[in-house]
Amino acid sequence: MSTVLSNFATWKHFLADRVSQAKKIGMTEETISSLAYEIGTFLDEKVDPKNEEERVLKQLWDVGDEAERKTLSCLMVKLVEKS
User: Fold this and answer.
1) Domain enclosing residue 11, as ranges
2) What is the CATH number of the domain that holds 22?
């Protein structure tokens, strides 16, 4: 995972692939967003930011409440879907 997180573009590509795979097996947007939130929680607790983009996301995550963190997770999914 550390290689994936070392470059933000690589992370976005990795996440986009996983979102695409999830859709192909029939996961709903709600389920995908919920998983994105769980991943965000894991990353916040266990992984140090590797680049400026990740530092900004961590800062936003840290100041947000649960609803805002869920919104941030949904926005990350949308971002990679549009990329």
Assistant:
1) 2-82
2) 1.10.760
CA dist., res. 23 & res. 29, Å (int): 8
Those residues whose C-beta lies under 8 Å from the C-beta of residue 1, and which sit 6 or more positions away, are 47
Each residue's pLDDT expressed in tens, for the chain with a length of 83 residues: 567 777 888 989 999 999 999 999 999 999 999 999 999 999 999 999 989 999 999 999 999 999 999 999 999 999 999 87
Residue 76, CB-side half-sphere exposure with 13 Å CA sphere? 32
CA distance 20 to 32: 10
Count of structural domains within the chain: 1
Nearest by Cα to 58 from 45, 71, 77: 45
Round to whole Å and give the CA distance between 64 and 49. Answer: 17
- 43-57 pLDDT, tens digit per residue, is 999 999 989 999 999
